[in-house]
Amino acid sequence: MAVSATGAVPRRPGPWGIGSGAWMWGLVALVGVGFWKTYFSRLGLADAVTHLHAGLMLAWMAMLLVQPWLIRTRRMALHRQIGQFSYGVMPGVLLTALWLSQLRIAAAPPEMFGLQSMLLYLGTAASLMLALFWGLAIIHRREPALHARYMVATALVMIDPAAARLMLALLPEGARFNPSWGGYAVTFAILTVLIVFDRTAPRGRGVFRFVAGVFMLNFVLMHVVPGTQAWQSFAHGWAALGG
Length: 243
What we know:
Layout: H1 20-34, H2 48-72, H3 76-83, H4 86-107, H5 113-139, H6 144-157, H7 159-170, H8 179-197, H9 207-221, H10 229-240
């Protein structure tokens, strides 16, 4: 978060204490390691839709890295110009995520349908959270303290997919552990730091509490919704769309 509520560049790093860049580079590293086995190490085997989705996600992460730096260096005009690309990048991220989820579940053999319906929920929920936080960031684009915090929230959505893949790669086969617990533990830990740091902020200190509430709601729903008959019916219908 590179600006104060008044739009001035702060004299110390944002609410992370060590600067937004370090946190974002940490996220980039997590994504690289987390998706190494399932994507980066097998680029030649991935289909075009996967490449398109990955490219758009990497473009979004690049924007999250560049935009705070442009604010800190007072390049506001360029910051606004690059921000315009989000109107194409984020809808592209969401549409390709839904497209991929349909392709994956349509191709799943019967014995894997239960797992794919769970993954469908996780992907759909992540897409909805991305859309929500990005939409709120755009609504508050003229209020730097709110806009920056909601943009940070879009980055937090990426932690669980990357961390879950990393844990699946590291855990011994047959281990009885839900990898999303680890991803959400990291997410909630970061949110706790941000909430504590924000407690004296003159503007926007309720944003991360709201974001934490959204993540908590989804953490509960992910253990309930996928097993319901309604979701299973939806998953079967979603799989049939490609037919």
